[in-house]
Design brief:
single chain; about 270 residues; Spermidine Synthase, Chain: A, domain 2; Rossmann fold; 2 domains; 9 helices; binds S-adenosylmethionine
Length: about 270
């Protein structure tokens, strides 16, 4: 990623991009899987980008990480004790789950260099990987889901967009494996992209999950640095999501009102998943 006149831009289409004025480019590396860049931006602090797309910034990562962890936690029918995270090499999701008191968290990230980069530039997030109850595995989450004999109460797919190594994380065969390793009463959730700029991702998530789970529901959150700021997540279970609720103190974004209202979808989003 070449820095032009101290701006980093993520392209949403041929005609639109979001630009961050940056103080410095801190790193740029090509790994076996993807290109990783870290920028020090004026408005959002440090920013991690993979293949030119924003993964997280110091200022707004809390929204994504709370919404991908607290939602499955409150809607799991069993008291969650064991969780699996696929992707999430920045450690943010593992950190939030650890705060929720889970006994065991397994995090499978395909690209060891994402972890190393984050260790240097986002130490507060990656610190979760040093916790006693967190096991970090560098490997393909698709293969892990197919081969592990362990079962989990919460499974979080904290992945990049459905291209390259993450493409298979939206497939029906992947969710067949996920179903086998999800405990009864548990919940699986995936990030499912920007309904406006990546309209196929949410549909792919539904298509992958529906053959294997009785209930599939999408919810949204406001994440300023993701395309359009309007982001979706999709969760699945065999119980009625939304009927039971496990009390949880509010986070910085998440609260009880949001946990219910975030399921209200605009009409154009509903058409993407039907
Ligand atoms: N919050 C982010 C977002 O939605 O933009 C996701 C952040 S996290 C850094 C995404 C991670 O998923 C990347 O580090 C990537 O290497 C990892 N990943 C992609 N495909 C994977 C796979 N098949 N197995 C495990 N990890 C994978």
């Amino acid at each position: 990623m070449k820095l032009i006149e101290n701006w980093f831009s993520e392209r949403y289409s041929d005609n639109l991009q979001l630009s961050f004025r940056v103080k410095d480019q801190l790193l740029s590396v090509r790994t076996d899987f993807q290109r990783i860049d870290v920028f020090d931006t004026y408005d959002f602090g440090k920013l991690l980008s993979i293949d030119g797309t924003v993964q997280l910034t110091e200022r707004d990562e809390f929204v994504y990480h709370e919404m991908i962890t607290m939602m499955p936690f409150v809607y799991s029918k069993v008291k969650p004790e064991k969780a699996l995270i696929i992707g999430g090499g920045d450690g943010g999701a593992a950190g939030e789950l650890a705060k929720l008191g889970l006994k065991r968290i397994v995090n499978v990230e395909i690209d060891g260099q994402v972890i190393e980069v984050c260790r240097k530039h986002f130490p507060d997030l990656v610190r979760s990987f040093t916790l006693e109850n967190v096991e970090l595995i560098v490997g393909d989450g698709i293969k892990y889901a197919r081969t592990t004999e362990e079962k989990f109460d919460i499974i979080i797919v904290d992945s990049t967009d459905p291209v390259g190594p993450a493409e298979g994380l939206f497939n029906e065969s992947f969710y067949k494996d996920i179903k086998k390793i999800l405990n009864t009463g548990g919940v699986v959730v995936t990030q499912s992209g920007s309904p406006f700029y990546q309209p196929t991702a949410i549909g792919l998530a539904h298509k992958g999950m529906k053959p294997h789970f009785a209930k599939v529901k999408s919810y949204t959150a406001f994440i300023p640095t993701y395309p359009s700021g309007f982001w979706s997540f999709t969760m699945a279970s065999d119980h009625d999501i939304g009927k039971s609720y496990r009390e949880l103190p509010a986070g910085k974004y998440f609260n009880k009102e949001i946990s219910a209202s975030c399921f209200s979808l605009p009409e154009f989003v509903k058409t993407l998943i039907t």
